[in-house]
Every structure is written in structure tokens, then in C-alpha cells.
Automatic annotation (TrEMBL):
The lineage of its organism: Bacteria, Pseudomonadati, Pseudomonadota, Gammaproteobacteria, Lysobacterales. It comes from Noviluteimonas lactosilytica. This is Dihydrolipoyl dehydrogenase. Its EC number is 1.8.1.4. Binds 1 FAD per subunit. The active site is a redox-active disulfide bond.
Length: 475
């Protein structure tokens, strides 16, 4: 078999992999990128989980369902009424599919434009930086890279008693492709996917029950943010049951009987579909042949140092298949950093300023440390917050729920975290990211002129509240 040589071979064309491949090619490196995924039409589809069955399709459905919810629940306040509004689920899913096709096709075009050679099939790393690709037509090609970047991503975790059939027991793939609104949707796991996709189907009329094993809701978020979000979700009718240990999920005819135990003892709920969203694991099965020297940790993640290097000469790993948050933008940054390091340039990802966003209504977003983490670390801090209910723009939009909280070091005033819950906070959180990247203080943020009336004024007033000088609320 002839071997084709490359400067860089990337395994996986998700957010991490396609960023690494395009940046490497931009830097003049001869680059190949391999991806095994097929789209809904059975044809190769680049872009990974994010573009096929993750970030983009979920946001398409979140937006469609939000429009429907607003029409049926919010527009009345604006004096707008519509007779008997209906949702056409087929049209909604069709719109989502069109967006997915546009963006997955877009990556293929970007590869062409940047002269990245795409290989469609399953890549396996062999010793000596050789990668074999089993292509979809059954043939195998062999590539050799001065550098190999592993960007294999992640898959849903399956529970042993609730195997995915993508009809009755589904993960994100099934939940993004339902053909009608289920009357009763059960969800295991009140994490990001459970809340986002649970919200989609709730807004369209499903009864949604979410079973969460932990006793605390959204334990990773700021406690006040989690409390506010939980209150709003309850008002929307999301039934979130905490401390629920699920033990069984039996399919009986067209129903799933889900058994769990909580403080009240053993209970069963009966649902039409069951979404299991209990986290994701690195997709490293079959990725490494014997003797590559690349190590996997106990959870199957590729072991890397702070520069995403595996310790094997020329082999790097990035994105969901390595430590750190499983977020597309974390993968983007690692992809670019590794390509630049390979080209001999500086490359670094600041893990302390990676923003988190949960695209529910209200949205939830944060960057940096929470008050709970700072207390546990013994770091002295001061916090200031500002509610959207006191903000002209938010009230004018009929979106008064939530607040912005800025946390700064008690002595230096340096911003340590920003926590937000409310309308469009997915955009506002970047003021915090930017300020933290520039080592800014709460006072810096408070002295920056923000346009009136905008939602961003909540950030400004929260920064002023850190030193008890907010204008639009009592300090
Ligand atoms: P992936 O996107 O998983 O891509 C890996 C690619 O590698 C895949 O195409 C796979 O087929 C391919 N591959 C794997 N092994 C091989 C092999 N051996 N040979 C060839 N190809 C291989 N993150 C956000 O930041 N914001 C969001 O709003 C968001 N929403 C999400 C919603 C859902 C429903 C889900 C499931 C995830 C969401 N995420 C979101 C997470 C985000 O999708 C992931 O963090 C991101 O896709 C990870 O990028 P990656 O490149 O590491 O891996
Ligand atoms: P998650 O880690 O966000 O949440 C999983 C939840 O399931 C946790 O609360 C956990 O306590 C609970 N859980 C685990 N085992 C359980 C069990 N047996 N019974 C009941 N509850 C159980 O995972 P996810 O929602 O599957 O999402 C996976 C990852 O995808 C996220 O962590 C995130 O990195 C990424 N993602 C990001 C976004 C975004 O950025 N907006 C959206 C979707 C997914």
C-alpha cells in the first residue's frame, strides 16, 4: 500500500479538528483531516457532534420552540394575539436539517479553499505516526504525518438498563429528530442537554419530567444563578426531581416505565420517550493500535500536558477527547493553539476564561470562579449584582427574570468571575471574558461607558455594585 506523507494529519473534523486542520493549512503545512461521520442522508458530513447533532441543531430547535412559546405565552403582554397557533414539527425539523447541511457542507468548502485534504472513513493511529483510514467504500489508505492531532470527540454515555434504540430511549441524536411532540417526555440527567432539549419539547407542549441523581440543581453554576433558573423552569412547568436514583427503564408497548428512588422511596413514571443525558465520554474506542505509546486515562480520555501534547513525539490531542470542559469553543481554541505550536509559533489556551452558556430561557452563563469556589479556596472577594427587573431594556422586552453578578478580589478588585441568568446573557458573558483576559478590575468595567438602554447596562451596574455605587438599585 502506498503511503501519503503529510506535515499534519488530524483525526476528527469536529470543532477541534477542523480548526486545527484549517489553521495548520493556513500556516503552509500540508494537512489531511479524516472523519468517519455520515449525515442523515448517509453521506459524509464534516463538523462533528457540534454541527451534526449538537450545538447548531439544538440551537435551531431552541429558537423555533422559543418563538412558539413566546407566541403562546409572552406576546399577549405586548398586546399581540394569534388564533389557535400550531407547531408543524416536520417543518421545524426540516429547517434544522437544512441548517445542518449548510454548515457541514461549509466545512467541506473551507477544506477545499484552504487545501486541506479530506479523507472519509475511520482513522486508526499506528506506531510511528502512521494513520490508516478504513474508508466508507471498504478500501484502506495509509498516511504518515510529521504530526498527528487526535480530535476524536465524544459520544453519549449509555446507562446499562436504558440502552439507546433512538425510538423510545434516545440521546441527543434522537431528541433532535422527533417527528412529533411526545405527550410525556422523561429525561435522565438535569445537565446541559437535559435542560436544553427538555426545554425544546416542553415549550411545544410535552409534559417533561427530569430525574437528576444529585441533590443540588446545576451544582457547577453559582448557587444564586441555579436557584433563579430553577424557579423560572418551575414556572414554565418543567418538573425537575432531584436526588432521583434511576434503576430501571422498561419498554412496555409504546411506553417507557422508569423506576427511580428518591427521599420519598421507590417511584415509577411512565413516559412516551426517555431522553438519557447523563454526560459524554471520549470517543477513543478503536482509535489507537498496539504500541503507539499514547496513553488513555481510566475514563478513556487521551492523556495530554497543558499544551495538548501526548508525550509521544509529534502526537497531540484536543477537544472533547482530552481533559477540560466538553465545549466546542474550548476545542476551537485548542485546535488553533496546537496548529500554531506545530508551526513553531506560541499557542496557549487559558482554561480560566472559558465561558459556559446554557441556552435555556432564561439563559445561564458564567466565566471564572463562583462564590462557592472562592469560599472553599479561602480567597477574599466582594460581589455586586444587578437584577434585570430594574433594567429599562429588559422590562421593555418583557424579560425581567434574572441578574448579573460580578465577583472581584476583595483587595485587588481584579475580576474573578461573572455569573449571569437572564435574557441574552450568552452574549453578555463575553464582557466578563474580555475583562478577565485583560486582568481587568470591577472598577475598570464600572468606568466603561455602556449604551442606554441595553442589556449590557446590567453588567455595568453589577460592576458598580461591587463597590456599592450602583445607581439604579439600593446598595
Ligand atoms: P466532536 O464534535 O465529537 O467531533 C469529533 C469527530 O471525529 C466526529 O465527527 C467523529 O465522527 C470523528 N471521529 C472520531 N473518531 C474518529 C476516528 N477514529 N476516525 C475518523 N473520525 C473520527 N458545546 C458548546 O460549546 N456549545 C453548545 O451549545 C453545545 N451544545 C451541544 C448540544 C448537544 C446536544 C451536544 C451533544 C453537545 C453540545 N456541545 C456544545 C458540545 C460540543 O458539541 C462538543 O464539545 C464539541 O463538538 C467537541 O468537539 P470535538 O471536535 O472535540 O469533537
Ligand atoms: P452533563 O454533565 O451536563 O449533565 C449530566 C447530568 O446527569 C448531571 O447533572 C449528572 O449529575 C446527571 N446524572 C449522571 N448520571 C445520572 C443517573 N444515573 N441518573 C440521574 N442523573 C444522572 O451532561 P449532558 O447534559 O449529557 O451533556 C454532556 C456535555 O455536552 C456537557 O457537559 C457539555 O460539556 C456539552 N454540552 C454543552 C452545551 C452548551 O454548551 N450549551 C449543550 C449541550 C451539551
Amino acid at each position: 500500500m502506498a503511503t501519503e506523507n503529510f506535515d499534519v494529519i488530524v483525526i476528527g473534523a469536529g470543532p477541534a479538528g477542523y480548526h486545527a486542520a484549517i489553521r495548520a493549512a493556513q500556516l503552509g503545512l500540508k494537512t489531511a483531516c479524516i472523519d468517519a461521520a455520515l449525515g442523515k442522508d448517509g453521506k459524509p458530513a464534516l463538523g462533528g457532534t457540534c454541527l451534526r447533532v449538537g450545538c447548531i441543531p439544538s440551537k435551531a430547535l431552541l429558537d423555533s420552540s422559543r418563538q412558539f412559546w413566546n407566541l403562546t405565552h409572552l406576546f399577549g403582554e405586548h398586546g399581540i394575539s394569534a388564533k389557535d397557533p400550531q407547531i408543524d414539527v416536520g417543518a421545524m425539523i426540516g429547517r434544522k436539517d437544512k441548517i445542518v447541511k449548510q454548515f457541514t457542507g461549509g466545512i467541506a468548502m473551507l477544506f477545499k479553499a484552504n487545501k486541506v485534504t479530506a479523507y472519509y472513513g475511520f482513522g486508526q493511529l499506528q506506531p510511528g505516526n502512521v494513520v490508516t483510514v478504513k474508508q466508507h467504500d471498504g478500501s484502506t489508505v495509509e498516511l504518515k504525518g510529521t504530526n498527528v492531532v487526535i480530535a476524536a470527540g465524544s459520544d453519549s454515555i449509555e446507562l446499562p438498563f436504558a440502552k439507546f434504540d433512538q425510538k423510545m430511549i434516545i440521546d441527543n441524536v434522537g431528541a433532535l429528530d422527533l417527528t412529533e411532540v411526545p405527550k410525556r417526555l422523561g429525561v435522565i440527567g438535569a445537565g446541559v442537554i437535559g435542560l436544553e432539549l427538555g426545554s425544546v419539547w416542553k415549550r411545544l407542549g410535552a409534559e417533561v419530567t427530569i430525574l437528576e441523581a444529585l441533590p443540588d440543581f446545576l451544582a457547577a453554576a453559582d448557587a444564586e444563578v441555579a436557584k433563579t433558573a430553577a424557579r423560572e423552569f418551575k414556572k414554565q412547568g418543567l418538573d425537575i426531581r432531584l436526588g432521583a436514583k434511576v434503576s430501571k427503564a422498561d419498554i412496555k408497548k409504546n411506553e417507557v416505565h422508569v423506576t427511580y428512588t428518591d427521599a420519598k422511596g421507590e417511584q415509577t413514571i411512565v413516559v412516551d420517550k426517555l431522553l438519557v443525558s447523563v454526560g459524554r465520554r471520549a470517543a477513543t474506542k478503536g482509535l489507537l493500535a498496539e504500541g503507539t505509546g499514547v496513553k488513555l486515562d481510566a475514563r478513556g480520555m487521551v492523556e495530554v500536558d497543558e499544551h495538548c501534547h501526548t508525550g509521544v513525539d509529534g502526537v497531540w490531542a484536543i477537544g472533547d477527547c482530552v481533559r477540560g470542559p466538553m465545549l466546542a469553543h474550548k476545542g476551537f481554541e485548542e485546535g488553533i493553539a496546537v496548529a500554531e505550536l506545530i508551526a513553531g509559533l506560541p499557542g496557549h489556551v487559558n482554561m480560566d476564561t472559558i465561558p459556559w452558556v446554557i441556552y435555556t430561557e432564561p439563559e445561564i452563563a458564567w466565566v471564572g470562579k463562583t462564590e462557592e469556589q472562592l469560599k472553599a479556596d479561602g480567597t477574599p472577594y466582594k460581589a455586586g449584582s444587578f437584577p434585570f427587573a430594574a433594567l429599562g431594556r429588559a422590562v421593555a422586552m418583557a424579560e425581567p427574570a434574572g441578574f448579573v453578578k460580578v465577583i472581584a478580589h476583595a483587595e485587588t478588585d481584579r475580576i474573578l468571575g461573572m455569573h449571569l441568568v437572564g435574557v441574552n446573557v450568552s452574549e453578555l458573558v463575553h464582557e466578563g471574558v474580555l475583562a478577565m483576559e485583560f486582568s481587568g478590575s470591577a472598577d475598570d468595567l464600572a468606568r466603561i461607558c455602556h449604551a442606554h438602554p441595553t442589556l449590557s447596562e446590567a453588567v455595568h451596574d453589577a460592576a458598580m455594585a461591587v463597590s456599592k455605587r450602583a445607581i439604579h438599585k439600593a446598595n
